[in-house]
């Protein structure tokens, strides 16, 4: 990621949450400890089903007298509906701020060069009143700049940055094994812990109860994690959503996200994943290769 480049992500949306009960409300629902979200630290989190299945993920930034959530724009409506269902009598407000903010990605080195910037996951500073923070998932993805639309162009000019094709950013995420596109295809199909949310710093096993916490903890503590979401390289042909991946006539995985960046839920045993990892194997009419990110221990 070039230190002089900035990537504008137009597919991101925002929800602002505030109110007297906002902090406790989020603490009882999301997978991350809301106490870790401060003026100097932002977090990555998720909401799961009561059974622990993956629903939606987002970044949480302390903002004014509440919290700003950065999620896929296509998930704003669903996320707001989920919050409304859990609201009951809580004194909390939800506002769609997607028309007022934009996400821009800058290099980690650029962030560190700014006043008070330092290389620490989630570390947050203010630039012209807008937050910038090192991506809490992985420092190699750079820093997220949550800019007011009205300030964006001048901020880019002042920072001596040039706008680059955001495909470079999405390619980097894919190379690192972190899904960024079409996450709605994962909803309800895998457990949050199978989606590597623990390694991406979105799961907290100390904070106490949240939606889906019981099953998530059971899978971890009893070592019952038998599948992982992993990136798939297409070697030949074409792959489609829900196609089965086979190795020596064994079903070892299934495509969940087919394009533009392919990911599959992959078995870790029977046969052992070491037997077919990084090898050309069959998937429908195509040939694929499953690879594991360096940050993920299988």
Largest sheet: 6 strands, mixed
CATH architecture classification of the largest domain: 2-Layer Sandwich
- Number of E strands: 17
- Give the tally of structural domains: 2
CATH topology of the largest domain, which one? Gyrase A, domain 2
Distance between the termini: 27 Å
Q: Please state the CA-atom Rg, rounded to the nearest Å.
A: 20 Å
What is the N-to-C succession of helices and strands? EEHEEEHEEHEEEHEHHEEEEEE
| Helix run count | 6
Average pLDDT for all residues: 96
Task: Assign an overall shape.
Answer: globular
* Helical content (DSSP H or I, runs of 4+): 10-25%
Structural class: alpha+beta
Keywords:
Gyrase A, domain 2, alpha+beta, 33% strand, globular, 6-stranded mixed sheet, 18% helix, 298 residues
Short précis:
This protein has helices at 22-27, 76-87, 108-113, 149-158, 167-176, 213-221; strands at 5-9, 12-18, 43-48, 54-63, 66-72, 93-96, 101-106, 124-127, 130-134, 143-148, 162-163, 227-236, 244-247, 250-257, 263-267, 280-283, 286-290. By secondary structure, the protein is of the alpha+beta class.
Describe the structure.
The chain has 6 helices and 17 strands. 18% of the residues lie in helices and 33% in strands. It is of the alpha+beta class and 298 residues long.
Write the SSE topology:
Layout: E1 5-9, E2 12-18, H1 22-27, E3 43-48, E4 54-63, E5 66-72, H2 76-87, E6 93-96, E7 101-106, H3 108-113, E8 124-127, E9 130-134, E10 143-148, H4 149-158, E11 162-163, H5 167-176, H6 213-221, E12 227-236, E13 244-247, E14 250-257, E15 263-267, E16 280-283, E17 286-290
């Amino acid at each position: 990621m070039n230190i002089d480049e900035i990537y504008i992500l137009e597919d991101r949306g925002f929800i602002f949450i505030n109110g007297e009960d906002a902090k406790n409300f989020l603490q009882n629902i999301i997978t991350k400890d809301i106490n870790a979200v401060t003026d100097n630290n932002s977090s990555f989190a998720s909401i799961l089903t009561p059974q622990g299945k993956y629903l939606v993920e987002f970044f949480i930034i302390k903002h004014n007298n509440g919290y700003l959530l950065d999620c896929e724009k296509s998930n704003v409506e669903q996320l707001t509906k989920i919050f409304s269902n859990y609201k009951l009598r809580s004194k909390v407000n939800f506002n769609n701020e997607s028309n007022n903010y934009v996400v821009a990605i800058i290099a980690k080195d650029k962030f560190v060069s700014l006043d008070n910037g330092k290389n620490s996951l989630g570390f947050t500073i203010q630039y012209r009143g807008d937050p910038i923070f090192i991506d809490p998932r992985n420092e190699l993805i750079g820093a997220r700049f949550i800019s007011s639309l009205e300030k964006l162009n001048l901020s880019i000019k002042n920072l001596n940055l040039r706008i680059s094709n955001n495909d470079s950013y999405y390619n980097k995420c894919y190379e690192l094994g972190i899904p960024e596109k079409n996450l709605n295809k994962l909803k309800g199909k895998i457990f949050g812990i199978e989606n590597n949310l623990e390694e991406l710093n979105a799961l907290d096993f100390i904070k106490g109860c949240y939606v889906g916490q019981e099953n998530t903890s059971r899978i971890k503590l009893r070592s019952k994690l038998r599948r992982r979401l992993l990136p798939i390289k297409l070697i030949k042909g074409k792959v489609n959503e829900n196609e089965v991946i086979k190795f020596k006539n064994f079903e070892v995985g299934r495509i969940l996200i087919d394009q533009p960046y392919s990911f599959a839920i992959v078995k870790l045993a029977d046969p052992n994943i070491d037997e077919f990892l990084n090898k050309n194997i069959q998937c429908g009419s195509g040939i694929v290769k499953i690879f594991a990110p360096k940050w993920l221990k299988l």
